[in-house]
Design a protein that fits this description.
Elements lengths: L1 H12 L3 E3 L23 E5 L4 H15 L3 E5 L2 H9 L5 E4 L5 H7 L1 E15 L10 E2 L1 H9 L8 H5 L12 E5 L4 H13 L1 H6 L12 E3 L1 H10 L4 E6 H6 L3 E2 L1 E3 L5 E2 L3 H8 L14 E2 L9 E10 L1 E2 L2 H17 L1 H6 L3 E2 L2 H10 L4 E2 L10
Parallel strand pairs: 2-3, 2-4, 6-11, 7-8, 7-9, 15-17
Antiparallel strand pairs: 1-3, 4-14, 5-9, 5-10, 5-14, 5-16, 11-12, 13-14
Helix pairs in contact: 1-2, 5-7
Length: 364
């Protein structure tokens, strides 16, 4: 059931433009806590491909219940930040949270929606998912181009008993500004001094080696068609494409598989109440079984809304998702936020106001 659900969602999410509905006027929905939506052509958003599968699923269900259509462009986190700053969309989406000072400067507010994991994926004939183990330092050497073949002794050392092919390694990375890349390079920066010195962490970096794919789906496609390739994608893209993922060494030294439980373990100690501007990273968290490249994904909106109806509709959609979207998120191997975090975010929404200082959303 889970794979079928991911397949349906991914088919919608993989394209550059996700369009839901055709701009019909909305009506009051019945049941499930669905608020009345704004009239007009619906709402628009752009940004991260990391959460695109779950936003697609939520949007389909919400439109069926409320009549509100959502036009979401899965163009990467960098593009989402630029578009919300340029006022060309009603909300932006990013896996790279903006720092509080940058939010204030841009007049923006951000809040998390779900937690997920970034996973290394490989195309190695005869190798099963989770059979290959990698450390952060070794992954850094591979992406620096210092380890060039799957038969390299450094790889063999941590994969005793695994028959790896004698294939050159083709490194695949994102070609667009990407929150997924930000999470991945932040992890590499913490584990590989050479990577930290030569490349560093950002949503767009000067990659020392490899080829670039646009979006999570672009990286997945390149890895699937290239024997010997390694890339990184959000976990839903790995499962949908039936790709071989690797284990990673956690902060405590154990090797773990990417699972929703492992993402939840990484997020279990998150203290959102103390995170100014909701800026919080979940990279290389302590605790048994914590997946080391875990992250929340975020929505960006203007603190002062020029169109109160659109602002209300955006917050209404995500309020509905908080109330009704956990099951769908879990089916796609995302981790829903704890109820206390959702309640905290809802209280923050009172600060999203019109030009005359009135809150745009009072909940349902």
């Amino acid at each position: 059931m889970m794979k079928s659900a991911v397949s349906t969602t991914f088919a919608l999410a993989a394209s550059a433009l996700l369009l839901f509905g055709c701009g019909k006027s909305t009506q009051q929905a019945q049941g499930n806590g669905t608020p009345a939506a704004a009239s007009g052509a619906g709402i628009s958003g752009a940004g991260a491909t990391f959460p695109a599968p779950i936003y697609s699923r939520w949007a389909e269900t919400y439109k069926a219940q409320s009549g509100l259509s959502l036009n979401y462009q899965a163009i990467g986190s960098g593009g989402g930040i630029k578009q919300i700053q340029a006022n060309t969309v009603d909300f932006g989406a990013s896996d790279k949270p903006m720092k509080p000072e940058d939010l204030d400067k841009a007049g923006l507010y951000q809040f998390p929606t779900v937690v997920g994991g970034v996973v290394p994926v490989v195309n190695l004939p005869g190798v099963q998912p989770g059979q290959v183990k990698l450390t952060g330092a070794l992954l850094g050497d591979i992406y620096l181009g210092a380890v060039k073949n799957w038969s390299d002794p450094k790889i063999a050392q941590v994969n005793a008993g695994v028959k790896l092919p004698n294939l050159p390694i083709t490194v695949v990375h994102r070609s667009d500004g990407s929150g997924t890349s930000f999470l991945y390079t932040t992890y590499l920066t913490g584990k590989s001094p050479a990577w930290a010195q030569k490349v560093g962490a950002n949503d767009a970096v000067e990659w020392p080696a490899g080829i670039g794919g646009k979006g999570n789906d672009g990286v997945a496609a390149f890895v699937k068609q290239t024997p010997g390739a390694i890339g990184y994608v959000e976990y839903a893209y790995a499962t949908q494409n039936k790709m071989s993922y690797t284990q990673l060494q956690d902060r405590d030294g154990a090797f773990v598989n990417p699972t929703a439980q492992a993402f939840a373990a990484a997020a279990s100690g998150a203290d959102w109440a103390k995170a100014a501007g909701n800026y919080l990273l979940l990279i290389d968290q302590p605790g048994a079984g914590a997946w080391p490249i875990t992250g929340a994904t975020f929505i960006l909106v203007h603190k002062q809304q020029a169109d109160a109806a659109k602002g209300k509709a955006v917050l209404g959609f995500f309020d509905w998702a908080y109330k009704n979207g956990d099951a769908a998120a879990s089916q796609l191997d995302y981790v829903p936020l704890p109820g206390a975090v959702k309640d905290m975010v809802r209280k923050q929404w009172a600060d999203i106001k019109t030009a005359d200082g009135k809150p745009v959303y009072a909940g349902t």
